[in-house]
Specification:
The structure is a single chain. The chain has helices at residues 11-14, 27-30, 35-41, 58-68, 83-100, 116-120, 123-128, 141-144, 147-150, 163-173, 183-192, 197-213, 222-226, 238-252, 256-268, 273-288, 294-309, 315-327, 333-347, 363-367, 408-418; strands at 48-51, 72-77, 104-109, 131-137, 154-157, 180-181, 218-219. It is of the alpha/beta class. A five-stranded parallel sheet has the order 2-3-4-1-5, with helices on both faces. A two-stranded parallel sheet has the order 6-7. α10 crosses α12 (197-213). 31% of the residues are buried.
């Protein structure tokens, strides 16, 4: 492999900011006078979690803290080091705190990689004040950090860098090389970085190395040179939930274009097509239901197609299902029916089926009244007779309340005609 032009350290590390004057982005947290910046500058930092996407400046801020604090500073990576390394570090911090009264700042990168029991080991040290914990994570702290630890830390949310922020960082990096770029080419790198400075700098470094190998001193077509772009979607991070939620809500909002966009974003980034297909099946029954029963069949067909032929051939089957669900008539009446019935079951778990609905396979059960009074529907005109099928307490109760949309409008008309006077439905538009 070709040796890097910056073999002593990556470009992203080489131009890492050393103070706030060099830090780019996160103005909502680090502008002059903001609480976090004041705490760092006055060396009165408290335990906190830095939460945000990769390349947004969390590790860079930790370096600034390291340069400014008079306290001991330790760096720990949960990705490459275990609790066996962390425990002695914590004990040393406690001993130092006992002797000097000064805490030790421990920066734990990728803290979300720690299990709950591993996070528990940090709790007493943070609680007693011997350790000021700075945890950096790309994952939602609400799900990845134990409540006891989270309650003792302030959470600061980092945002993806703007394209303008990334451009500033790229231009700073260009001062380390003789290769030049048009602003339009830097714009391409900034655009495809997704607000990730590290990704942008790695792409710039790769482009410079390739240009140098080819004897190019001015880069005029960076896309052709590096021949790739970095998708913003990460299937194992928050985007996994954000994008599937966006897909679901776009279909619910009857926007096929947005729905297909989020579908493509996930599939092109390596998301499991069967995961998406399962969510579309759920949507077909939850948000469409009997307003258009065909939607569920199409969703299941798409799931089977995805299972049968896989990627990339299954993309059109999934697209077909997503578009159909987006344009179909919408109703959550099926979802609401189950939810209401479930609530009633949980509130009254000991209800019994009426005696007339119970099967009587033996004479003993028949003598007890099992099946008494039940009328076989096919023996009456129209195969329908008004009877109460619910427990007596729930007589006349309506769980399924059809809307006036799609096929459900006809279903509602039929139910009203059959059960006229026995049940009452709300008017759902």
């Amino acid at each position: 492999m070709q040796k890097s032009l910056w073999s002593e350290e990556p470009l992203a590390s080489k131009i890492r900011p050393r103070d706030f004057s060099e830090f780019v982005g996160q103005e909502h947290l680090l502008s002059k006078g903001m609480p976090l910046r004041v705490a760092i500058e006055s060396d009165k930092l408290y335990s906190c979690i830095l939460y945000g996407p990769p390349g947004s400046g969390k590790t860079s801020l930790a370096e600034i803290i390291k340069n400014r604090t008079k306290n001991n500073f330790k760096h720990f990576s949960a990705a490459t080091q275990g609790v066996g390394v962390l425990k002695p570090m914590m004990k040393e911090a406690r001993d130092n705190f006992t002797k000097t009264g000064r805490p030790t700042i421990i920066f734990v990168d990728e803290i979300h990689r720690f299990s709950k029991s591993q996070q528990d080991t940090m709790l007493p040290y943070v609680e007693e004040g011997s350790v000021i914990l700075i945890g950096a994570t790309t994952e939602n702290p609400s799900f990845e950090i134990i409540p006891a630890l989270l309650s003792r830390c302030r959470v600061f949310t980092f945002k993806p860098l703007s394209k303008e922020n990334v451009m500033v960082i790229l231009k700073k990096a260009l001062k380390t090389t003789n290769v030049t770029f048009e602003d339009s080419e830097l714009d391409v790198i900034a655009e495809t970085s997704g607000g990730d400075a590290r990704t942008a700098l790695n792409s710039l470094e790769e482009a410079i190395e390739l240009a140098t190998q080819k004897g190019i001193t001015k880069v005029t077509n960076v896309e052709k040179l590096i021949q790739r772009s970095i998708p913003r979607y990460r299937k194992h991070a928050d985007e996994h939930y954000d994008f599937i939620s966006a897909l679901h809500k776009s279909m619910r909002g009857s926007d096929p274009d947005a729905a297909v966009y989020y579908l493509a974003s996930m599939l092109e980034s390596g998301e499991d097509p069967l995961y998406i297909a399962r969510r579309v099946v759920r949507f077909a029954s939850e948000d469409i239901g009997l307003a258009d029963p065909r939607a569920l069949s199409i969703a299941i067909d798409a799931y089977q197609a995805a299972h049968f032929i896989g990627m990339p051939e299954c993309t059109t089957a999934l697209t077909q299902a997503v578009i159909y669900c987006a344009v179909a008539a919408k109703s959550n009446a099926v979802y609401r029916a189950y939810s209401k019935a479930s609530e009633d079951v949980k509130a009254h778990p000991y209800e019994k089926a009426p005696m007339m609905l119970r099967n009587a396979p033996t004479k003993f059960m028949k003598d007890l009244g099992y099946g008494k009074g039940y009328v076989y529907q096919h023996d009456v005109k129209g195969a329908f007779l008004v009877q109460n099928y619910l427990p007596e307490r729930l007589k006349g109760k309506v769980f399924y309340n059809p809307t006036n949309r799609g096929l459900e409008s006809k279903i509602k008309e039929k139910l009203k005609r059959l059960w006229n006077g026995f049940k009452k439905w709300e008017d759902v538009q």
